[in-house]
Amino acid sequence: MPSKAKTGKKLVIVESPAKSKTIAKYLGEGFIVEASIGHIRDLPQPSELPAELKKTSVGKFAVDIDHDFKPYYVVSADKKKKVTELKAALKDADELYLATDGDREGEAIAWHLLEVLKPKVPVYRMTFGEITKEAIQRAMGNLRDVDTALVDAQETRRVLDRLYGYEISPVLWRKVARGLSAGRVQSVVTRMVVDRERERMAFKAASYWDLTGQFGADAGSFKAKLAAVDGAKVASGRDFNDDGVLTSKNVAHLNEELAASLAAGLQDASFTVRSVDTKPYTRRPAAPFTTSTLQQEAGRKLRFSSKSTMQVAQRLYENGYITYMRTDSSSLSDEALTAARRQASELYGPEYIPQSPRVYTGKAANAQEAHEAIRPAGDSFRTPAQVAKQLSGDEFRLYELIWKRTVASQMADAKGSTATIRLGAVAADGRDAEFSASGTVITFPGFLAAYEEGKDETRGDDDSDDARRLPNVAKGDALTASEILAVGHETSPPPRYTEASLTAELEKRGIGRPSTYASTISTIQDRGYVRKQGSALVPSWIAFSVIRLLEQHFSDYVDYEFTADMEGDLDKIANGQAVGASWLRHFYFGEDSDPGLLSIVNNLGEIDAREINSIPITDEITLRVGKFGPYLESSAATVDPKTGEIVESPRANVPEDLAPDELTAAKAIELMETAAPEERVLGTDPHTGHTVVAKNGRYGAYVTEVIPEMTEEQIAAQPVEYYKNGKPKPPKKPVKAKPRTGSLFKSMTVESVTLDEALQLMSLPRALGEDAEGNLITVQNGRFGPYLKKGTDSRSIGSEEEIFTITLDQALEIYSQPKQRGARAAVPPLAEFGPDPVSEKNIVVKEGRFGPYITDGITNITVPRATSLEELTREQAVELLAEKRAKGPVKRTATRKAPAKKKATAKK
Predict the structure, then answer these.
(1) Is the peptide bond before 739 cis (omega within 30 degrees of 0)?
(2) Which of 218, 309, 375, 874 is the most exposed place for a label (fewest CB within 10 A)?
(3) What is the pLDDT of residue 826?
(4) For the segment 261-273, what is each residue's pLDDT rounded down to a tens digit?
């Protein structure tokens, strides 16, 4: 065959369209840049496998567990068109450049492209840490092959996650609830949040007291705190353990009485300065951002969720503003060091940079492949002011944070001095009281002129030095005292994790990858294991059940060290020091005395689901996690105060917004005492003979009828059906009839509703009659109040009571008026973000049937569960609406009835 004629075209494939547009600007003539839009193939669901594979060793996981765990990949349905386009582009190219990201995920995408496209032209692997002209030119000079070790590590992780999830999740379905999932990292992260809540639940507060006073000298006044009594240090929060027990020895533990008497005895005492200690103060700048520290700091300073941080950083990277945002390295290239030092000198002065560049080499326990720290892109940095008009609000704020941190990392130390004054007096009762005051004065701000790192909430007393200047006093100086007050304190429980502090703890323990922290934290919220209360992460009761089951029966797989060690093993595979197939074989099948996952799953034995889903609150009250949510159950029978009946195992619902550590014994007793009856029999429907009851349900109180099940005699009396061979079929179990139900009006309660009211509620919707065109008009109650309905046209009415009084004429009058969109417009929107740049309509957030949603009046999109309304920004709202528009309207598959089978004509 004649060889293909040279075209001079070079095909470059990246992951995203935004990245392709940016890189295209820096490549020379003849380069065609296409985007794969992420992975082009993946493991299918086992149900999607070809029939001939379903009963083989591939069938369970879409992974051949008997042949080196070889994955069975398929091109995703939504990527088939893209693959066709890439193959067509490759036909006209003389060279192929795979320019996906340089981490394991990017390497795997490049390998999959190679496997699917099967190029017959030279192939080059091209990586770069930033999308700038200089970086692209350097990348073209450092081309390489696809790194198969990195691909093996990514593939091993993908198969590992499939094995873990598909073996353990079904156990959760059987013993806790359907639809739950277990994940190699997500389950461990959930355990961390649950463990912290357990600590808070077990915590016992201790009280302690101290004194504060205002002291004056000729040079000025200052505030000081009691430090010692008769030479013994005054007890503070850190001197107690979580059981409320004082653990420190030789400390003075003041109670209210002792503190108050000491304060009274010092009112007329003569105070003098006992010592003045001054020390030099030096503070070094923080290292440039890694993925983890960027998520933490953006959470503290910008109130971004981890997911939002990574989304914004991705856009900044793809558009050439910052370097690659998935990195464990805090090091800077020589070009970046020069750029940061030059900019610091230009903006703050030459005295603000040290003589030599600062080098940061510290890495996390689970450091990934070499990348630079996250910094502004380019060999010279653009200031925030220079890019302000090109970026959205969130993009600008994150870029500014990255720029400040990078420049500050190459600036001089902050310098100053810390002074500590000790002063004291003898109280009227003879006790010696010594107070202390400290203050730090910054004399040279150094890097603080550009940036100061944020802090997470900590426990104990805040003994940090205030940035205040203390008066110039000397030992022996007399002081005047005023406002000597006794102040009480209580020890505080361990603070709940925020996304920032959880990210820091994961990195510290070496669990998971910093690049996946955002998606993992988002997943545990989407799964309902964790919710946000402000910025704090609060576990659900179902998370307690899940973690308890995993701890008891899969202990290794939620063990912190075991999970961190797995990351280390994946690192060895990535470095070529181990082989993925061998590691997976050991993990799944086990070896010698080390059982694998398969053996553990096959030998679980009996799991007591009731025990797993029960948490004792008091000796008599137990919290149970049920099908419809958590509830309390008492082992002590109670007497219904209204009926006098004995209620065995009484129950009470647990409010959804009540955090687990707030369900104390006292609160549980209160909920049990104030619980409305679960069910109250109202009487018998005279028309059907069915019993009518009122109940308290998960979504409110309602009435319903009890339809008795058919007896065995009634089932046996049904007409007999026969098989073709003439034998009778066994009696069919009848389909259970759906009972009529009706939600109680707001003015009704389970205790007060009557049988007549219940029958009315169950009769809804109520038909009022027809309009002139013959359209039926009905009235009914809905989640958002009472309303009329005529075909698809709904109109709200005033009150629930009107449902049974409104007439057809009144309804026709309402329909004669022009429809006002949102007759509930009196309810203000949850948030407003101004006009949309595309539709030019006002963007608002409203409360909808399935939660809050963003709308411009044309396009609607639900607010992601992982994003709280407090975190939602205009830029995010605009972006979410744009993404929804790009997807177009939801395509609904029409349900078609199969044509009726023709009856066979009997042969004569």
Answers:
(1) no
(2) 218
(3) 46
(4) 999 999 999 999 9
Asked if residue 231 has pLDDT above 70, the reply is: yes
Pairing of strands 594-595, 590-591: antiparallel
Q: What is the reported pLDDT for 664?
A: 94
Concatenate the DSSP letters of all residues of 414-479 into one string: EEEEEEEEEEEEE-TTS-EEEEEEEEEEEEE-GGGGT---------S---PPBS-PPP---TT-EE
Q: Which residues are catalytic?
A: 324
Q: How confident is the model at residue 366 (pLDDT cuts 50, 70, 90)?
A: very low
Alpha helices of 527-662 — where are they, by DSSP H? 541-553, 560-574, 580-589, 597-602, 609-612
Q: Specify whether the CB–CB gap between 334 and 548 falls below 8 A.
A: no
pTM above 0.85, yes or no: no
- Provide the residue type at 326 as one letter: R
Pairing of strands 95-98, 123-125: parallel
CA-closest candidate to residue 867, choices 311, 454, 402, 496: 311
Cβ–Cβ under 8 Å, residues 181 and 172: yes
Instruction: Answer yes or no: are the C-beta atoms of 707 and 690 closer than 8 Å.
Output: yes
Instruction: Say how far apart CA 53 and CA 43 lie, in whole Å.
Output: 14
Beta-strand pair 232-234/251-252: parallel
Residue 888 — pLDDT band, cuts 50, 70, 90? low
Q: Does the pLDDT of residue 254 top 60, yes or no?
A: yes
**Helix/strand/coil for 630:** strand
Task: Give φ, ψ of 833 to 5 degrees.
Answer: -130, 15
